[in-house]
Specification:
alpha/beta; TIM Barrel; 8 strands; globular; binds 6,7,8,9-tetrahydroxy-5-methylcarboxamido-2-oxononanoic acid
């Protein structure tokens, strides 16, 4: 798990405008980001629209990216699904396909008890030899500190992807579980804060479009250049908050297209940038980022 560090794009999954999985574009965006020097990849999570896809499509996306990466950087696969059975199937597939780590949100939709969540992570983690990164995100329900502590005690659970605004917990996790337990900050608009509280790396949507800016931010934080880091975070936040008022994943895909790696469209009911007016407004906001 120690190989996972730095700036890790939660890779978008390209679909055609009609909604079909587009593996040709998936290969192209993977090559593009490798060319940008990203440190690792995170697949089929929230940004990767994992819950929009069938298990078979998720497997195809994972196989395609792993084939394109060909061992050059570590790859973590989000395998979360609603039942232990389905998640174990995705986890064992990820291991067989050559992934380096797995990650999962807790089971969603029903209000599962802490014991059920614990048994989910125990069974999924035991099903492979890969390190498991627990994923805390309010979208998938509450995951309190007590439960995180119990999950961290499962053999093979090696870290947490922390995508909630309560960053004081990052420090608590670091203090309580030591440096061997990896922490990935998942809110791109608070990357600086995540790192300041002790995160080892960043996983998120916007590292698909500005990985270089965030690599500078990581370096500035590591070297104690706080003002520089603040300026970089403020710059990134302009485009993040502009897109959050609209369709963030679709915006990331459009912008990647302008950068030379057409990432296609999002699956409905997510919207896409389809009119020239919408696209022009996004272009203006993105241009402002370079000023
Ligand atoms: C993933 O794909 O699983 C993630 O990386 C999640 C992190 C993203 N959060 C959500 C809710 O999708 O990158 C963030 C997020 O898009 C960004 O911080 C803007 O809010």
């Amino acid at each position: 798990i120690a190989d996972f560090k730095g700036v890790i794009p939660a890779l978008v999954t390209p679909f055609t405008l009609e909604g079909a999985l587009d593996l040709t574009r998936a290969r192209a965006i993977t090559r593009h980001l490798l060319g940008q020097g990203v440190d690792c990849f995170y697949l089929t999570g929230s940004t990767g629209e994992g819950f929009m896809m069938s298990p078979d499509e998720r497997k195809q996306m994972v196989e395609t990216v792993l084939d394109e990466v060909a061992g050059s950087v570590p790859v973590m696969v989000h395998v979360g699904a609603i039942s232990t059975y389905q998640t174990v199937d995705l986890a064992t597939h990820a291991e067989g396909a050559g992934a380096d780590a797995i990650s999962s949100v807790p089971p969603i939709y029903w209000p599962f008890t802490p014991e059920q969540i614990l048994s989910y992570y125990t069974d999924v983690t035991r099903s492979t030899a890969l390190p498991m990164v627990v994923y805390k995100i309010p979208l998938a329900g509450a995951l309190g500190f007590d439960l995180i502590e119990r999950l961290a005690g499962i053999e093979g659970v090696s870290g947490i992807k922390y995508t909630a605004p309560t960053h004081f917990e990052i420090m608590q996790i670091r203090q309580q579980f030591g440096t061997g337990f990896r922490i990935f900050s998942g809110a791109d608009e608070m990357a600086l804060s995540g790192l300041a509280f002790g995160a080892d790396g960043l996983i998120g949507s916007f590292y698909n479009i500005v990985p270089g800016l965030y690599a500078e931010l990581v370096a500035a934080m590591a070297e104690g250049r706080l003002e520089e880091a603040q300026a970089l975070q403020a710059k990134a936040n302009k485009i993040i908050f502009f897109t959050l008022r609209q369709y963030p994943m679709a915006a990331v895909k459009r912008i990647m297209g302008w950068q030379g790696a057409d990432a296609g469209y999002c699956r409905a009911p997510f919207e896409n940038y389809e009119t020239p007016e919408q696209e022009a407004a996004l272009k203006d906001a993105f241009r402002a980022l370079r000023d």
